[in-house]
Amino acid sequence: MASNALAGHPGHLTDSQQSILVQFREELTAEGLIPADKDALVSRLGYDRFDESTLLRFLRARKFDVPKAKLMWANNEKWRKEFGADDIAANGFDYPERTEVSKYYPQFYHKTDKEGRPLYIEQLGKLDINKLYALTTQDRQLKHLVSEYEKFLGERCQACSKQVGHLVETSCTILDLYNAGISSFYKVKDYVSAASAIGQNNYVCSTRH
Question: Which InterPro entries does the record match to this protein (predicted)?
Answer without folding.
Answer: CRAL-TRIO_dom, CRAL-TRIO_dom_sf, CRAL/TRIO_N_dom, CRAL/TRIO_N_dom_sf, PI/PC_transfer
